[in-house]
Design a protein that fits this description.
Layout lengths: L13 H4 L8 E2 L6 H10 L4 H15 L22 E2 L13 H10 L1 H8 L2 E6 L2 E7 L1 H5 L3 E4 H7 L1 H7 L10 H9 L4 E5 L9 E6 L6 E2 L2 E6 L4 E9 L7 E3 L2 E6 L4 E10 L3 E4 L1 E6 L4 E10 L2 E4 L2 E4 L5 E10 L4 E10 L5 E10 L4 E10 L6 E11 L5 E10 L4 E10 L3 H8 L5 H17 L10 H9 L5
Parallel strand pairs: 3-7, 6-9, 7-10, 8-11, 9-12, 10-13, 11-14, 12-15, 13-16, 14-17, 15-18, 16-19, 17-20, 18-20, 19-21, 20-22, 21-23, 22-24, 23-25
Antiparallel strand pairs: 1-2, 3-4, 5-6
Length: 468
């Protein structure tokens, strides 16, 4: 008798694959040239220093090679990517003022409803521009700033100039340089010292235009003793051409501050997702990452935490699901740069139907970062004999006193576990489904399901389905 194979249905993407007519009021030519960069800058009314920054970034991009490790990026042809698409919409503070077709998209995704019940502020980006932004007046009265990056560049230029791409400089890698040249949209958050933002803020990024890129920039500053939970969501419909996402997230967690950054990357299977996220954590500060990687054809995503002050901490929780035609290369990086810093990394990866899920961890303990502690735990589950899962840890320990541990497990559904459950009256199909759901449960329970609109449905849809 042949062994029964396990089959988990792919995510039902009907909701996310609904396309609107591509009717921008303006888009750049395909490609990446000095002329295109100047065009974007002029359309956005950049100050002179930002235009100079963009042109410098373009020069860095042109002189920086593609990474020689990780997924194959040969399908990405920048000569065929449109880097700026301005939708037919002005930024609004009321959903009623957003064009009907764009508002309908966000209605289907549940964003306006979530704002009414669970969020203290919402930003919504469509293609290259933010079309809606709001924040509760009670937070504004406390000095909290939550707006789009273009508005921040005008109203808070000194702050933006002080922090913008200082944590992720263009020279960091080729796609950081690309981002610096063509960035558009994104969110700016500033939480003053001592202010506790008890209800989350959420930004949602939707890419509708085929053959385009999205390059939003998120900059968050949480001052001394303050706290914030920020949620990011993103999706795009599927096209038969390559789309590109190369956003950038810079998080500054000051002394004694706390930031929880939750995100679901739910791009379509024609997307190249080459995102960069980094946090700088000062003394007694805490950064919490909750990360879900779904969709996309190729992903390279490794959120980095630099523990810069004594007793700074990092908690990273992630789940990655790679199906047919997907190569998801994800992980986390921690730099211990001060004494008594600590980090805990806990991830689950699932691969099926020939999907490739690679987990990379990089832990560095700098000289003088005495008594640093870091625990890395990665568990991988392969659902068939065509899939692949790799765990690639790197540890660079330059101090004499450090407690660093790495544990990785890769396996398949246990026949013994299935047999045990069936002897308790559970069908074999449901037994296998229960095992898969149980595998990801430690991660799923960390996700802010009550706030992030998609997360609960995505987890359930990915893990349920026909088993047989």
């Amino acid at each position: 008798m042949a062994k029964k194979k396990t089959f988990i249905e792919d995510i039902e993407r009907t909701l996310y694959d609904i396309k609107n007519e591509d009717r921008p009021v303006y888009k750049t030519k395909q490609g990446l040239t000095d002329e295109i960069i100047r065009d974007i800058s002029a359309k956005k009314h950049d100050p002179d220093w930002m235009l100079a920054f963009r042109l410098h970034s373009l020069d860095v991009y042109n002189h920086t090679p593609l990474p020689v490790w990780g997924p194959d990026l040969s399908e990405l042809d920048m000569d065929r990517i449109v880097t700026y698409v301005k939708p037919d919409a002005k930024m609004a503070g009321r959903w009623e003022d957003v064009p009907a077709d764009i508002k309908d998209t966000f209605d289907r995704l549940g964003i306006p409803e979530a704002e009414k019940t669970s969020l203290a502020g919402v930003g919504a980006q469509y293609d290259s521009e933010v079309v809606y932004h709001s924040i509760q007046e009670s937070l504004t009265r406390q000095g909290v700033i939550y707006t789009d990056m273009e508005t921040a560049l005008v109203e808070h230029e000194d702050l933006v100039r002080e922090y913008f791409m200082k944590l992720v400089p263009p020279k960091d890698h080729k796609f950081a340089a690309l981002h610096g040249a063509v960035w558009s949209g994104g969110s700016f958050v500033y939480v003053p010292a001592g202010v506790q933002v008890k209800i989350p803020l959420q930004s949602y990024f939707r890419l509708n235009s085929p053959g385009a890129g999205q390059f939003e920039h998120t900059l968050i500053i949480v001052e001394k003793g303050a706290s914030l939970h920020f949620i990011e969501g993103c999706s795009a419909p599927k096209y038969n051409v390559t789309n590109l996402h190369a956003g950038c997230v810079e998080l500054y967690v000051k002394e004694g501050a706390r930031l929880r950054y939750s995100t679901i990357e739910n791009w379509s299977r024609n997307m190249m997702n080459l995102n960069t996220k980094r946090a700088l954590v000062e003394k007694d500060g805490l950064i919490e990452w909750v990360s879900g990687s779904f969709g996309s054809h190729v992903s390279m995503l490794y959120p980095c935490s630099i523990l810069h002050g004594e007793n700074a901490r990092c908690e990273f929780t992630g789940v990655t699901f790679a199906g047919h035609g997907q190569h998801l290369d994800t992980g986390a990086t921690v730099v211990h740069a001060a004494p008594h810093t600590s980090a805990n990394i806990n991830t689950r990866t699932i691969s099926k139907d020939g999907g490739i899920a690679v987990y990379r961890s990089a832990v560095k303990v700098a000289p003088g970062a005495d008594h640093a502690k870091c625990s890395v735990n990665c568990e991988s589950l392969m659902l068939d004999d065509r899939s692949r899962s790799d765990t690639l840890p790197v540890m660079d320990i330059q101090g004499d006193e450090a407690d660093i541990g790495h544990e990785a497990r890769i396996g398949r559904i246990s026949d013994e576990a299935v047999y045990y459950l069936t002897t308790r009256g559970i069908s074999e199909d449901e037994a296998r489904a229960m095992i898969v759901r149980g595998f990801v449960e430690p991660i799923a329970k960390a996700l802010p399901l009550e706030y992030a609109v998609e997360m609960n449905n995505l987890i359930n849809i990915e893990l349920e389905g026909a088993m047989g």
